[in-house]
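wait is this the right file?? whatever heres the structure
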């Protein structure tokens, strides 16, 4: 693992797993211990990315599965080029609410697109800069969906789709045990955050 990737931590999981909240807790913990931290979200995190986010998650026309994958990759490419890589190069930690692994789980496994093709598309988009650590927050699909404050276009998909995505994340974690840290997210959010910080040794 490169030094850049070591300071690049992603949070993944199904809708309602608590990724955004736990990511903020970890970012706050790192800042409190003297580290510079950049907190980002996907899709979004830049003006370009937020515009793409509206297309992807808003209530307009739904992109086709391949167009959806390409739009996620485009947002990700801009974020990595303009924010993530410069922050890591400057010595900061980057905490990301989702990364390219979401596209592998949602667009490849969930939508039924070719996994290798989506992996290659995203590898090109991010210039090979994958997170060194991926924290997968796991929660029962029904519980996660019930936790959503507001469901967006993808969050409002059928339960079967989200179950496929959850199984996809499990398979990705099993394939890369050296990169993934799997944490039970069914507990109180403060307990989940504390468990993540402990597991990461931060």
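ok assuming it is, sequence goes like this
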């Amino acid at each position: 693992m490169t030094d850049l990737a070591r300071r690049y931590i992603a949070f993944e999981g199904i809708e309602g797993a608590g990724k955004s909240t736990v990511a903020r807790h970890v970012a706050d913990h790192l800042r409190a211990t003297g580290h510079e931290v950049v907190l980002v979200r996907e899709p979004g995190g830049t003006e370009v990315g937020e515009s793409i986010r509206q297309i992807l998650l808003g209530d307009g026309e739904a992109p086709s599965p391949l167009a959806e994958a390409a739009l996620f990759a485009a947002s990700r490419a801009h974020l990595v080029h303009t924010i993530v890589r410069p922050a890591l190069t400057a010595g900061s930690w980057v905490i990301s609410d989702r990364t390219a692994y979401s596209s592998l789980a949602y667009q490849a496994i969930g939508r039924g697109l070719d996994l290798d093709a989506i992996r290659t598309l995203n590898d090109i988009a991010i210039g090979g800069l994958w997170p060194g650590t991926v924290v997968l927050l796991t929660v029962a699909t029904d519980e996660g969906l019930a936790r959503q404050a507001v469901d967006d276009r993808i969050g409002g998909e059928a339960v079967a789709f989200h179950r496929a995505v959850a199984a996809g994340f499990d398979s990705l974690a099993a394939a890369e045990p050296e990169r993934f840290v799997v944490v039970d997210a069914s507990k109180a959010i403060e307990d989940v955050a504390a468990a993540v910080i402990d597991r990461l040794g931060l």
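Strands lie at 8-12, 37-41, 93-97, 133-138, 180-184. so i think its the right one actually
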